[in-house]
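Q: Here's a chain of 386 amino acids. Please give me its 3D structure as C-alpha cells.
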Amino acid sequence: MAGQRWRVTIATRVLVVNPGSSSLKMSVLNAANQVIATQELAAPSGKFDRSELGEVLAEHEDSIDAVGYRVVHGGQLFTTALRIDENVVQGMSDLAELAPLHQLASIAAVDLISSRLPETPAVACFDTAFHATLPAAAHTYALPRSWRERWGLRRYGFHGLSHEYASRRASELVGTALDRLRIVTCHLGAGASLAAVHGGQSIDTTMGFTPLEGLMMASRSGSIDPGMLIWLLESGRLSVSELSNSLERESGLAGLADTTDMRSVIKRAGNRNADAALAFDVYVHRLRASIAAMAAAMDGVDVLVFTGGVGEHAPEIRAAAVDNLTMLGAHLDPQANAGTTSDSIISTNESRVAVVVVEAREDIVIADNVRGVLRQPLGGDVENAV
C-alpha cells in the first residue's frame, strides 16, 4: 500500500466499508453518491466470515475505484481522513483497546480487502476526527496532568461521521448556510450520542474517552458515578471483566427492560409494563438534559436534528424529548412527527428551533472524504481523468 502513486478519476466509485459490533455494512456509491450496490454481513462481536466477504468483493470488484473504511477510534493520532498504509494500520491497532469490537473489525476488513484489491487505493475515515475541533474546556477531564499527558486521557467523541452528515443535511433542509447555524445533532441508535455543531464545527459532544460515556443506550449504561464503580471493584463484588461486560452489554435498555429493541420498549410501555415505562422515562430524561447541555455550549440552538435508527423511526422518543424543551423554543407538529422517517422538518411554523429528521448517511461523508484525500498529491501530482 505504501509508496503508490494513484491515478484518481474525478468520477470515483467508492466501496464504503462500515464495520460494527454486530454487522459489516458495505455499499458502492457512484460519483453522485447514489448507492449502486449494498450488502450487509453478520459480524457477531465484530467478527465476520472472511469467505463471505470475499464472495461479495468478487461480485463487485470491477465497479470499485477506491475503498473507504469507517474507523471508530483515531485518538490523537488521526484527526483527518488518511490514505491507508502500514503506519496507519499500526496506529489503528495501537488504539484497538479503546474500542475493540469496532476497531478490530476495521483492521480485519482492511487486511482482507487490500489482499483482494491490492492496486485499489484505500482511505481510513475516523469517527473521532469530526470532534478534533472540541475546545479544551469541552475535551479536558479534571484529572491529574500526569495522567492526561501519559495516557492521552481526554474526551474524543464518536459518531463523528454521522454528526457531520446530519448537520450538513439539516442546513440544506432549513435553507441556511451551515456556518450560520447552531445545531444539536442527536445520533440515536444502538449507540447514541449528541453533538453541539456551531458553524459546522463540533464544539461539544456527549461521548468521551470511550463510547461508554454520555446517553443511556441499547446495552451501554452511559454516564454513571465512577465512585460506584470503584466501590463495586474494591468490595470484590465484581471483577474488572464482569464490570466491563455488564457496562457494555447488559446495561441501558437491556438492564432496565431486558431488551435492546426500542420498538419493544415503546410498545410495552404503552401497555403499562413498569420496566419498559421506566426504561423509556430514563432514556428520555437523559436525552432532554443532554440536548439542553449541548444548546448551552452554543448559547442557544437553531436546529435540532434526530438521526440514527431510533432518531429516525421512534416518533414517541422525539415527541417526549421535545415536549420538555419549550424553554428552548422548540415545538413539534404532531402530524409531521408521526408521519416521517427521514429528511424532513417536523416542527411547527411558530417554533423558534427547527426540528428535523435526517436519514443517517455516514457512507456519503466517507465517500466524499475518500475522493478528497485521493485528489491530494502523493509522490507527485495526482492525475485527474474523467
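Q: Can you summarize the key feature?
A: Residues 170 and 356 are 7 Å apart (CA to CA).
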